[in-house]
């Protein structure tokens, strides 16, 4: 069975050679494999290291995107270029241990089409673990697919599962949801958290928040329904307050109008309207992005054997 490993990379010059060495050790017993490196607009020596690795070992192939299109686009590029009967997706920072692939691959022979690596929360700060559990609990109440805490992009996919993912052509991609959406029999392999070998995480708090919002909006329209419910609730409160004012005026006469009451009402209603407009705007923005039908990425460079595997302007399906 031919096996492909897709590795999205962005400014990973400090760890890329270590990763390639670890992958070579982990995959040494396989009869046939390839490593597909995807440079997502790196500004360091990442692409230079890819070129050298590909020249030294024909099993290492690479793609270089014309700019930073994001990890989702880099993963998609790698999946389109992968030729294996089974395909693994792994991060370049070695927080996804390559040695775990030996435990994951046998599940494909047992009939599973997805083998997912799930990171345990052992050693995580209590506040971070609590926030993560709360996020996934909230997400699973909102989205139409099931997401698991600790499960990310580290997984092994059968060719059937890869082809199913490539059929999903939306521009706004949320990989965790897409992996869950395609279904198929899925096995889970647990592993403990591993620290980065070098460098710093590319994920800032703002990025994590935006990623969470993408997850909520990509797989359901419940926020729009919640906006309706919120509007109805606020309208009911306003109607009740107006009724109370009328009753109080009839019983005790009209007092001097309250400045604080007016300001609170205006600010409160204005805030609710802005929230609802923001939710609607998010969905409209996604529709706008989809209708433009731009490619998910553009290629700047590729290893020689990639010329027939992937065009420079990928089709939007």
Task: Give a summary of the structure in a few sentences.
The chain is an alpha/beta fold and 317 residues long. The chain has helices at 16-27, 46-56, 71-81, 101-104, 106-109, 126-142, 159-166, 175-182, 205-218, 222-252, 259-292; strands at 3-9, 33-39, 60-65, 86-89, 114-119, 151-158, 186-191, 299-302.
Would you give an account of this structure?
The protein is an alpha/beta fold. The chain has two domains: 3-202 and 295-306, Spore Coat Polysaccharide Biosynthesis Protein SpsA, Chain A, CATH 3.90.550.10; 222-292. Helices cover 49% and strands 15% of the residues. It contains eleven helices and eight strands. It has helices at 16-27, 46-56, 71-81, 101-104, 106-109, 126-142, 159-166, 175-182, 205-218, 222-252, 259-292; strands spanning 3-9, 33-39, 60-65, 86-89, 114-119, 151-158, 186-191, 299-302. An eight-stranded mixed sheet has the order 7-5-6-4-1-2-3-8, sandwiched between helices. α2 links the parallel β2 and β3 (60-65). α10 (222-252) runs antiparallel to α11 (259-292). The chain starts with a strand and ends in a 15-residue tail after the last strand.
């Amino acid at each position: 069975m031919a096996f492909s490993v897709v590795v999205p990379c962005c400014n990973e010059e400090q760890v890329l050679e270590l990763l390639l060495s670890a992958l070579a050790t982990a995959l040494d017993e396989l009869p046939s494999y390839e490593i597909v490196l995807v440079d997502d607009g790196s500004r360091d020596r990442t692409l230079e290291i890819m070129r050298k690795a590909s020249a030294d070992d024909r099993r290492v192939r690479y793609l270089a995107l014309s700019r930073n299109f994001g990890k989702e686009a880099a993963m998609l590029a790698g999946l389109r270029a992968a030729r294996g009967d089974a395909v693994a997706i792994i991060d370049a920072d070695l927080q996804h241990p390559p040695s775990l692939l030996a435990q994951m691959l046998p599940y494909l022979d047992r009939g599973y089409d997805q083998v997912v690596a799930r990171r345990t929360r052992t050693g995580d700060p209590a506040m971070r673990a609590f926030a993560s559990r709360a996020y996934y609990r909230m997400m699973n109440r909102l989205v139409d697919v099931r997401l698991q805490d600790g499960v990310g992009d580290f997984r092994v996919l059968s060719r059937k599962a890869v082809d199913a993912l490539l059929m999903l052509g939306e521009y706004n991609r949320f990989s965790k949801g897409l992996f869950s959406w395609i279904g198929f029999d899925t096995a889970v392999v647990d592993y403990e958290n591993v620290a980065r070998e070098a460098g710093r995480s590319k994920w800032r708090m703002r990025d994590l928040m935006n990623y969470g919002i993408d997850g909520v909006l990509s797989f359901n329209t419940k926020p729009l329904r919640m906006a309706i419910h919120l509007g109805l609730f606020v309208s009911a409160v306003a109607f009740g307050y107006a009724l109370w004012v009328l009753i109080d005026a009839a019983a005790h006469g009209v007092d001097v109008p309250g400045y604080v009451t007016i300001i609170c009402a205006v600010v409160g209603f204005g805030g609710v309207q802005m929230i609802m407009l923001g939710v609607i705007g998010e969905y409209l923005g996604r529709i706008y992005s989809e209708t433009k039908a731009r490619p998910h990425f553009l290629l700047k460079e590729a290893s020689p054997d990639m010329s027939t595997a992937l065009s420079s302007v990928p089709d939007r399906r």
